[in-house]
Amino acid sequence: MSLLSIRDLCVAMGPQEILRGVSLDVPDGSIVAVLGSNGVGKTTLMRTISGIYRGRQGSISFAGQPILNLPAHRIVALGLCQAPEGRQIFSNMSVRENLVLGAGDAGPGELDRIYTLFPVLAERLRQNAGSLSGGEQQMLCIARALMRRPRLLLLDEPSLGLAPKLVALIFDLVRRIRAEGVSILIVEQNARAALRIADHAAVMEDGRIVLAGKAAELRDDPRIAEAYLGGHVHG
Ligand SMILES: Nc1ncnc2c1ncn2[C@@H]1O[C@H](COP(=O)(O)OP(=O)(O)OP(=O)(O)O)[C@@H](O)[C@H]1O
Ligand SMILES: [Mg+2]
């Protein structure tokens, strides 16, 4: 069954069409990766799913309910949470305050689970979030989104700007989060790492999905190798 199902989604900013008929499914329990170069509409897609941008046409259903153009807080309440592009943590608040704010009405009940998944954060609860390293800030961003116990987690470029070792750590965390029963839709420019953990993947170009399939098959697709894996199929 599809937990998230997007059909013919169109989004425009004024006269400019950003998404031109996007259809995509996230099967329950899976990791789905969206790949694509700068400016093709990946973040716009994530923001529209989350209710931050309005869709002009098409439909999105989540757990069987139509959610396109619902207010963002109602979508979160249904169990769909986003770790946004650029992290957007509250720099002048502590790590713990960021987590508790992320929980909203759900309260701090998830803190113990978060500390187990992110021991690095557990060691820095009183530290200002702005003083965390880039990798720690990314972990805080993901942890904050998990405070609501979502069924679906949206991750927008979680590995951006991180050193290879931290990229590996973040991807390992994504795998563990899925193992706890959270489905994941991840946008990444690190195609190689994303295709390694994903079950399914889609490639966007200019507001459309131009290629989609099982991640294992896309890994071996010469079009992907050429455009996103630096010409090497395996590595
Ligand atoms: N709020 C907005 N107002 C006007 N144009 C926007 C807005 N949000 C996005 N766009 C435009 O939509 C297009 C797609 O942007 P988007 O951020 O979705 O791309 P992206 O694939 O996430 O790129 P990147 O990989 O650089 O993050 C861009 O041309 C961008 O300028
Ligand atoms: Mg983006």
Quick synopsis:
This protein is an alpha/beta fold. It has a single domain, classed as Rossmann fold, CATH 3.40.50. It is 35% helix and 28% strand.
Question: Could you please describe the fold and organization of this structure?
Answer:
- The chain is 35% helix and 28% strand.
- It contains 10 helices and 10 strands.
- The strands form 2 sheets. The protein has a 6-stranded mixed β-sheet, with helices on both faces.
- Strand 7, helix 7 (164-179) and strand 8 form a beta-alpha-beta unit.
- It is globular and about 45 Å long.
- Adenosine-5'-triphosphate is lined by residues 13, 18, 36, 38-44, 85.
Keywords:
4-stranded antiparallel sheet; Rossmann fold; 235 residues; globular; single chain; binds adenosine-5'-triphosphate
Any chance you could write out the topology, listing elements then pairs?
Blueprint: E1 2-13, E2 16-27, E3 31-35, H1 42-49, E4 57-62, E5 65-66, H2 72-77, E6 80-83, H3 95-103, H4 111-117, H5 119-122, H6 134-146, E7 152-156, H7 164-179, E8 183-188, H8 191-197, E9 200-205, E10 208-214, H9 215-219, H10 222-228
Parallel strand pairs: 3-8, 3-9, 6-7, 7-8
Antiparallel strand pairs: 1-2, 1-4, 4-5, 9-10
Helix pairs in contact: 3-6
The protein binds adenosine-5'-triphosphate and magnesium ion.
The site of adenosine-5'-triphosphate has 11 residues, from helix 1.
Task: Provide the structure class.
Answer: alpha/beta
Number of domains: 1
Integer-rounded radius of gyration: 17 Å
Question: CATH topology, which one?
Answer: Rossmann fold
Q: Any idea what the CATH superfamily is called?
A: P-loop containing nucleotide triphosphate hydrolases
CATH architecture: 3-Layer(aba) Sandwich
Strand order of the largest sheet: 6-7-8-3-9-10
Mean pLDDT: 93
What helical percentage do the residues reach? 25-40%
Number of strands: 10
Largest sheet: 6 strands, mixed
Instruction: Please write the CATH class name.
Output: Alpha Beta
Global outline: globular
Amino- and carboxy-terminal Cα gap: 32 Å
Series of H and E elements: EEEHEEHEHHHHEHEHEEHH
Q: Count up the helices.
A: 10
Percent of residues in beta strands: 25-35%
Low-confidence stretches: none
